[in-house]
Design a protein that fits this description.
- It contains 4 helices and no strands.
- With 93 residues, it is mainly alpha-helical.
- The chain has a domain of 55 residues.
- The longest helix is centred in the middle third of the chain and has 25 residues.
- Belongs to the somatotropin/prolactin family.
- One of its GO terms (biological process) is response to nutrient levels.
Length: 93
């Protein structure tokens, strides 16, 4: 944390809700059998909600970390998540 986040930002970030992903409440299949009983649309919907739950936290990383390696990586992850979001939305149409 000390390496990547400047001192003045470190404590302010701990209170920010944008830094967290709350995916525990997303209704997900609990195992292989449960997943196989879900329709394709239900699985796509679950996947979309899960991906969307990570978009803001990953984008937040780009703003918080000053290290170029972390910044570039979080930007690439964000772009991949956006691509997945768009792909799933296309499949759901």
């Amino acid at each position: 944390e000390r390496t990547y986040i400047p001192e003045d930002q470190r404590h302010a970030n701990k209170n920010s809700q944008g830094a967290f992903c709350y995916s525990e409440t997303i209704p997900a299949p609990t195992g292989k059998d449960d997943a196989q009983q879900k329709s394709d649309m239900e699985l796509l919907r679950f996947s979309l909600v899960l991906i969307q739950s990570w978009l803001s936290p990953v984008q937040y990383l780009s703003k918080v970390f000053t290290n170029n390696l972390v910044f570039g990586t979080s930007d690439r992850v964000y772009e991949k998540l956006k691509d997945l979001e768009e792909g799933i939305q296309a499949l759901m149409r």
